[in-house]
Amino acid sequence: MDIMDYCKKEWRGNTQKATCMKKLPEKLMSKHSWIKQWKLGLKFEGKNEDLVDKIKESLSLLRKKWAGLTELRTAEARQVACDELFTNEEEEYSLYEAVKFLMLNRAIELYDDKEKGKEVPFFSVLLFARDTSSDPGQLLRNHLNQVGNTGGLEQVEMFLLAYAVRHTIQVYRLSKYSTEEFITVYPTDPPRDWPVVTLIAEDDRHYNVPVRVCEETSL
Description:
By secondary structure, the chain is α+β, with helices and mostly antiparallel strands. Helices cover 49% and strands 8% of the residues. It is built from eight helices and four strands. The protein has helices spanning 3-10, 16-31, 51-70, 75-85, 89-115, 122-127, 136-144, 155-165; strands at 168-173, 183-186, 196-201, 207-208. Strands 2-1-3-4 form a four-stranded mixed β-sheet. The longest helix has 27 residues, at 89-115.
């Protein structure tokens, strides 16, 4: 499936996905009080931010930006929009919070399914087998709260990210050049209808999105 077609279908107006996102923060926090341990990113430290309102605002911004990019017809226009997006630090950090919340929501769903004896992706078994993330609460406190602040995503959390946004993540791992691990795909056996996003990793914690078309040069 084309990534732009997917975004137009899932992230605009009053689709089921868009409506669900609006209600998600209140729904989860009413069921899991420990979510109040969520720590907002560096840009929001010291601000009197209501957690539910801030996460709702972040999810709304993500939906707006995502849907807006799908309306742009050319790669050049999308490049300009991306450049503008990352000149606004507060918006950038808001998007981090939104994606992290989607990851937490997916982790809760997977954990509940596992506890009920349902079949779950193997990565989620590994995710909750760690001493530091034996349940979604620990995952939040020990991992997600640090992402975008003092830490990055570990390999098993890349699988969670893929499942959270329902995109296949293909990573070129430069440190693994000339090995079988040079190109890594999260998840390893993705649904066929998931769009594909390509990243370039300098190591296994810092990822770059290739968005600009460059001319090849030689020395």
